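Many introductory courses stop at the sequence. We go one step further.
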Amino acid sequence: MNPHYMRRLVRLQTHETMAEFDRVAAGFDGISTELDALTADSTPAAILAKLLTVDGAGSGLAADGLDVMDDRDNTTVPADMVNRGIVADFKRAAYTPGTDTHTYGGQLTFAPWQDDSGGDVHALLFGGNGKFERVHGTRAGGWGPAIELADTANRGIVKESGVLSTGVPPGGVYSGGTSAMSGGIVLSVPGATWNSTMLAIQVDVYDFKQNGSFSIMLAGYNYAGTSAWLNTSAQLSGRPKVGRNLRVRFGTNGSGEPVIQIGEAGDTWDFPIVRVRDLMCGWLGATQSAWKQPWSVALSATTIPTVHKTHILNLDLVVPTLTGGWSIFSALYPPSYSLIDGIVYLHGVISGGTISSAAFTLPAGCRPAQTAGFSTAVAIGTNEGFIQVSPAGTVTPLAGSTTYMALDGVSFPAARL
């Protein structure tokens, strides 16, 4: 006698269809063997004790926990849950609403109320090899699509509506373990192949002594047609340490494989920790078999050899090359520029050049989207100075004195690359 039939029959209010009643009642076929040991003189207490411990091992009505019914060749749908309750079934995978292809699994179905006014019916599906899914639906409409929650074989990479996602992908962490480590942070994508995947990730960087931890959201399309990164982006959250010029480069390593480099080859880090998280990807290459492969995160003393796109996220007091006869007015006020939180700032004082001749050129990523003009301080006794910055990056004094011209006060949002 399989005693869980007894329990299911006693609480049929959870699954009250005739088909289910017939299946559960069939479990009583073997109960006569157990009850034959009772006599006509048996007391009610003895009969109850026999029912509570049908197999003598505490697995009858008195057993702790939820019994699992062998319902392998029948489907359980929301409409079967006539009343509120929980049903646990052993199933063949083909008879569950999930996507598992292994032979056997389990289904735990929960109905919070006796009809759809109390919400959907829910089910957790336990498949082979650690696959774990959920479904929900109404009694009137049936189950919706299965949503994968975990899969040991796919290392936590779940897929829903064609989109892969995970918290921290395999291999997506790095810990330096010591101070004064050098190199740029290089991320090698799983499989090291161009597979036409649209992806977005978050990268957290911890730097111990220099009070400069930050996060970057990275996105791009690793297009297989040309083995190149397309439509990339990089958004900085947090402020790197003073003096750190932070760039992100999308490109390839020496083997032509897709990589992303954060920072410069000569950067130093103290006890660095790097974590890739919140992976989201779609399109042609978004398969679990491809993205369950481990990432590689490491420091590299060389800049990646081929760069498809560079994003400048933070620059701190970069000294430009002066042109047009302009020079440094004083070593106390050298001309420079910085990029902080997407805003470009000019600093210092220049002199000796020619009005209407460009003093220097800002790099891509530090230029305005449109031509911008700014009033500025000049030598006493002359008219107010005026500086123009073009979308091409040229910084040109158009009016004022060549004795000296201040750059401080010039600032503008950097155009998106």
